Amino acid sequence: MAEVGRVSIRLPSTIKQGDVIRVRTLVIHPMERVQRDKQGKIIPKNYHFVHSMAAALDGKEIMRAELTQGVSQNPGLTFPLKVDRPGKLTVTFFDTTGKAYMGQAEIRFS
Amino acid sequence: MKLMARAETFDERRLTRRLFIKLSVAAAAVVLVWENFFTGGRVFAQTNPPGWPLADEPVEATLKRLFGNRGFTSGEGRIKMELPAIAEDGGNVAITVDADFPVSGATRARHIYIISDKNRRPMLAKFSLSADSGRAAIATSIRLATSTDVRAVVEMNDGALYAVAKHVRVTISGCDLPPAG
User: Fold this and answer.
1) Distance (Å, whole) CA A64 – CA B164
2) Are strands B79-82 and B93-99 parallel, antiparallel or unpaired?
3) pLDDT tens for the 110 residues of chain A, in order
4) pTM of the model
5) B138 touching A, CB under 8 A?
6) Closest in B132, B143, B175 to A81, CB measured
7) Which CATH number fits domain A27-32+41-107: 2.60.40.10, 3.40.190.10, 2.40.160.20, 3.40.50.40?
């Protein structure tokens, strides 16, 4: 999984001022599931999954999400954004190994 | 008779007083052990890395932990939750929650929770919105352990809770389940 941590952001092809757009984001991540031993007991270890996500427009936080192992592999999150002005959208995913995966997209009016 | 009764209560009172002392000593010991246990637990939780597995939780406990004793209002008609009725693969179930609540103003939607009743940890995801969201709508994909009710809960800034639920039949589990039996 050399690609782990790749973040993709998809925006609508046309954005007009004042629109509420759907931002589709996705991070390539295994979202490791809980493992159990033969007795069915959970193996205690630091599981590797994305535990939170934050999105910001020009540095101002616009939304935040808390994820668990109950979210699928390669988690995709879609969230709304009211666009009043163009700007740079930054989406960051944080995983349990302390890594942060960032993706950026430019919001322009067309 | 009256006198006897009084004597009896007097005796009883002395007994209870003695008992009270014993009980308070025992209670103090319990409190000490309890406190140790709790601070110990807290330190333990702090040193655990973030991916450490948390204890299994029934959905009632999850709701109580997240929302206390607040009651739910039916979000029927205001919250639209899209979810397949039958999920072939429990490991990847698409879910869309679109709530007809404002995200700015005096009463606004602040959080959207996705809760699966029969997962080991029912709280699957929590989304926190802001006025810049423009709309209380999210989508993601979740893992379901087995056929279960899935709830979407919208928490307002004043603490009011709106919820909808839908049953999903899961063919293949999306989680590692303990061995049956």
Assistant:
1) 22
2) antiparallel
3) 558 999 999 999 999 999 999 999 999 999 999 999 888 889 999 999 999 999 999 999 999 999 999 999 999 999 999 999 999 999 999 999 999 999 999 999 98
4) 0.81
5) yes
6) B132
7) 2.60.40.10
